[in-house]
Amino acid sequence: MNPRSDRQRFAFVTITTLFFAWGFITVTVDPLIASLKAIFALSYAEVMLTQFAFFLAYGVVSLPAAALVRRLGYARAIAVALVVMIAGCLIVPVATHFETFAIVLPALFIIAGGITVLQVAANPLAAALGPAERAHYRLTLSQAFNSLGTAIAPYAMASVVLGGGIFTAAEGASVTAAQRAVSLRHIDLAFLGIAVLIALLAAFIFAVRERLATASPPGTSAEDSSVAGALRSRWALLGAAGIFLYVGAEVSIGSTLTNFLHQGDVFGVPLGRAGKLVSLYWSGAMVGRFAGSALLTRVRAATLLTVAAAVAALLCLTVMLTPGALAGAAALSIGLMNSIMFPVIFTLTLERSTASRAATSGLLVMAIVGGAFLPRLVGVLADFAGLRAAYAVPMLAYACISAFAIAASRVTPVARPAAAGLAH
Description:
By secondary structure, the protein is an all-alpha fold.
């Protein structure tokens, strides 16, 4: 038995729980959007401020998070991130107590800020905890658990925040104050439950902090990880645009899917049932990651990304042009196409960027802020022309990603050691 290998194996299992946790928490916002829209009588543009607040944290917190990881080390930075996430969860009951939607927004920003620190710390740590030749395998496994969290979360969250209260009222009936209060309490219950689960995870991380610290590799230097270097690389910028568009498209669809499937000309099911069906969208991403890993051993990454993004664009067009259940099925199927996009965009960019791997990675993580801006645009378009027309935004995003992949297939990678991608 190799003591160091045992420590690294234990540390990897510990870190993988974090992938599951941030995947679960990120996607809880999807059914929450449908709940907040109904409770506060918000427009799509207004309720999409939830995703704006959540994903804005990636743009604001990424650089401070990298500095925090360098200063505290992986284990302590992860513990701080979990405590920050608990604080954000505990602010949500304040918002519901005062029945003020605006207070929900800083709560979500704080939660996402903690998740950003987790991303910055856990992604490179998962890749480094073991032999270098198995780094891709470890990240693929961690990504599968991240996707498991995103698959479970919509069903679990919808069961709580889209059940009872105002959601028991008949269509078009006036909502009573008592029903509204029940729905607000359900949101409290959901976030207090999440806070308890994070607290248990934080206690576990604290208990094993020494074992985690001894297994962790040394961090990168500030100079190596400066995003400024990536801003001078054409391919780093193109890859960042790809990540921006992908995350924005994926989040836009997931955010509106509950209300879309609820529509009478789609599935026509109650909001609670529609919210649970969103799990199929995220389950497609989970299944696709396993299938995509196998396909990537036989198909060029750029080719697979070209096809996946093009099919996603066609599915968006199908949603826009076809009536009934076919549109709903097409929208849910986009999740399968999304599955390989983030890691493939990431690795294609790392292979072609002339900046350091750390600098390029930092810029790509910041580009996740696309999840703040595209959903807001989708919300404005949905208010103006309806949810079907709003699929034009992700359709154009996927078309641009397909063009990125075609361009990448024509460029020779920069000669450097193989790199692993991050998970989203």
